[in-house]
Amino acid sequence: MERNLLGVRVFVAMAFIVAAFIALGMRFHHVQVNRHDELYAKAKATYTRVVKRKGKRGRIFDVNGGLLAGNAPCYHLIADPQLTGDNIQCAKTAEFLAKTLGVDINRTFIKLATKRQKDGRPDRYALIKRDIPFDTGNAIWTTAREKGLRGLFLQESEKRIYPKDTLLEPTLGFINVDRDKAVPVSGLERAIAKYVAESKGRIIRESDRRGRPLACGKEVVDRPTVDGMDVFLTVDENIQMIVEEELDTLCRKFRPKAAYAVMVEPRTGDILAIAQRPTFNPNDRSTMKNGNWVDRITTYVFEPGSTMKPMVISGALDNGVVTPWTKFNCEHGYWKKARLRDSHRMGISTVTEILVESSNIGTAKIAEKMGKQLLYNTLVDFGISRKTGLPFPRESRGVLRPPRRWDGLSISRFPIGQGVSVTPLQLARAYCALANGGRLVNLRIIDRLVDPATGRTFTNPPAPAVEVFKHTKTARQIVEIMKGVTRHGGTAERAAIPGIEVAGKTGTSQKWISKKESSTGRGHYSEKKFFATFVGFAPADKPAFVLMITADEPQGNHYGGVVAAPTFKRIAERTLAYMRTKLEFHQ
Questions:
Q1: Across-strand partners of 483?
Q2: pLDDT computed for residue 211 by the predictor
């Protein structure tokens, strides 16, 4: 009996042990096979760390490699509110940071003392100040530790810098930073964002429980960091400085509301310099006032006045409507039919005299002989109301109404640049066609892109030009007439350069006062507010550049020949001297 009972006990014990081994085996199978991926991921998380690394934003250079926009290493000072201590300790830290960094003491205290986010989770990150120089950041961190101030950390980063300060602004533009992400705001920084934008990479690194890299641990690149492309512009930094210095001289003398300058190589459409006033320094945001950071040279339109006349007259010449010697009665200064005046009296005058002496009446009669459709087609052929080919998404097209929307005075007003609006860029581009034999080019400001990782270059060749003139002689005729504008008796004698022929045209246009701006409640042309403009090219027969200068509401004088023409002369003389020196150096 006892033996049987012992056998039963042994059998039960053996069965239990077998069952236990089976259960344990099933558990091992479940853990090692069914839950392998889950548990492996958890284990891996305890000894690996994901490190995110940010690429560098592409740099911007001038055509010769001068740095215009780059990146500089810096620190962001951040705080962990869970480690900053009680309110007394936070107050001490805030006072210290206010004295050393100039941050607002009250706002800083709130950041340090706020322990919970809105959703109730612990707040572990508070940005105290961005873009702190390395030396300053290290000194602050060392002093904070000596004072026993806790919870402060330095985060390595980079900030966008503009080594030439105001040079090429606002065309160059600037960026803001949102949570360590670059946000392009204006100008080229925004227009070419897709080329210069960087991307973040990820590295998976074996580390200890505190996140420190293991000496013999593995490091795997999960996603590579990619730097943005470097962009080389067509702008020449040296010419840009000349243009900006002389534009400043104009502004000091005539105190305009705004002023613009564009210099273009007429055969390629390459922008050599582009400037506007007022401007700002993107390295010092306190200089950003009253919208002076807006790239108005691509978006702002104005009535070009008499600078429109060479386009109209060249169209009439090319289509056989007139010759340079065709005569018109300029009505001794007042044309009753069109209610149109000239600034001085002219009688029977040739087409050449009409342009050289800038007769509104004579030009209007030439346009009347052309007819609405030919006049309209001529202006469109010169790029009026068309974009210039630059990459700026907000570039204005200007205003040119089609013939079906013209009134009885349009045929006499549009050819003298009244009732038509252009951007400074459109006007410069139109004169390129006058300067280069009648070929309308697209403007170009990006010369090439370079991949900083491989050194591979991507060129941006000029787009094919469009022929404006039917006859080659038209270009020679209009240039010869425009030379007279800068000779003795022309409206732009002050643009003349000794020993070099200059072709160009002045413009003095009244500003339109809208109903909202008008004290009478009706729109009208101002008798006190003007645009003073000169556009020209030199040397006239083989132009090195086209240069447009315009001043918005100059004080003391409002004539293009007085305000803008002398600035053209000074810029042209200095630029031609620089170009000769550069050519001699390369030879």
A1: none
A2: 47
